[in-house]
Input
Amino acid sequence: MLWKAIGAARELTRAHDIAAILVRYGFGDLVRRIGMADALERAGRALHWHEPEELARLEPPARVRRAFEELGPTFIKLGQILATRVDLFPPEWIVEFGRLQDAAPAVPFEQVREQLTEDLGEAPETAFAEIDTQPLAAASLAQVYRARLHDGRAVILKVRRPGIRPTVEADLQLLTRVSEIIEAEAPDLRRYRPREIVHEFTLSLRREMDFAAECRYAERVAASFVERSDIVIPRVHWQWCGERLNVQDYIDGIPGRDLAAVDAAGLERKLLARRGASAVLKMMLEDGFFHADPHPGNVFYLHGNRIAFIDFGMVGRLSEARRYELAVLLNGLVSNDAAAVADVLLEWRDAEAPETEPERLRHEIDTFVDQYKGVPLKQLDIGAMLSDLVMILREHGLSLPPDLSLLIKAFITLEGMGRQLDPDFDMGAEAAPFLRRVLLAHHAPDAIARRSWRTLGDAVNLVTGLPHDLSQLLRSARRGKLQVQVDIVSLKRLGEQLDRAATRMTIGIVTAALIIGSAIVMTVVGDPGFAGLNTLGLLGFFGAVAGGVAVLLSIWRGGRRD
Output
């Protein structure tokens, strides 16, 4: 099944490796159900079990995380995307996905030098006054080196790993096929929306592999903070940047995880927490373009209580309408307006999501919001409230749009960082001014006029185009060319089952005919044959036995496959 489906993949041996690793970590049933067992059998590879007792004791989330780590960069990145889908996976899965470390053994600089020379147009030692051949960091997709320009400025070189793209593209193609098969063949796994996740992941990973796009994202964020000296975005040096190379200023600051160094440097934790929250909230609610992974590894603290953000490989986007909906949701949580919260969540419900009872959902949200009534704003944990709200969605089989999944994950990460810096950090108070501005902007006269003109234009286009559309429809009907296309993936499997049944029936009929014919031939006198039996009749019986065995084997294999 899968073997045929992935025939166009560049590296079919990758399917063998994936199947072997999944089986080793105890997911043999999943391998069989999605049809990868054939790939594993054809590969003929031995399963090298390492510490089987330890693997047997691991919970499923930990086993999946370990398998992803062994499967390589594509699956590590997939796990990081899954860590944002708090609406689809329970907390224990989100925790394990969050532990996936984007690290890998460093590739020797000699292997990187050839690619660098191609991208720079000259040897790296010529392009830069100094270059450290020992990487500062080695991730699954890239390695980072420190260098110095001829004018003395310190920079970093983010270099894509040589030869990584073919492997990633093969994995993405394979994941796409597998997601389609899972949705068609495994209804109990369909609620995890595999095709949606793989599509979202494919777009995200391809953007992340384009380092020139990352540079553009960094400059877009930098432009929005051009008037704020307390927020630093590394300067991009475009003369050396490209799809495989990103050259930016080196940030010499205190890593976000090193709070002891923050205290030693005399920086103000409370001020840093407020400035960091203000910056990210501005990106989310005002600009609609935000850093989607603001964890401590991507944040540095500088002298003067300044904050630097790095690594814009993963960004999120929010339309004006989505920002308004988000403002209504957060404002409803803070102001105990359960009806507003329920309305927004029902609006976000995916069109393909299972039907839910709106009144039951509203009742649960009303109960949830009511427990915070009278609680001072300073004591509200907005991140925890969002997590609990998403859990209610998950219980109803609902999911968030992908852009909001990224935002909620970033929001929770941001609040966690703020509370690490300042235990009294009040995310609600920091977000309130931004929420008010979004709500006021939505109801401003110019915004209302803009939406009205847009709606009027859509209505006019619909009315003026209706006669033409009806004319085409009637013309097709008169010619007998009116077609209704129905695409049901499960019919393919039904066809295969009917084909197998017809084959078995044909073999059975032939076998029965051989038995009857051979019995008649056996009555013919005059052919001593073998051991006194008629030769032709004996051959017929042997053929009947072979046909019967073939039918039994086909039934047995079909039972295992089903």
Remarks:
- The first strand starts at residue 130 and ends at 131.
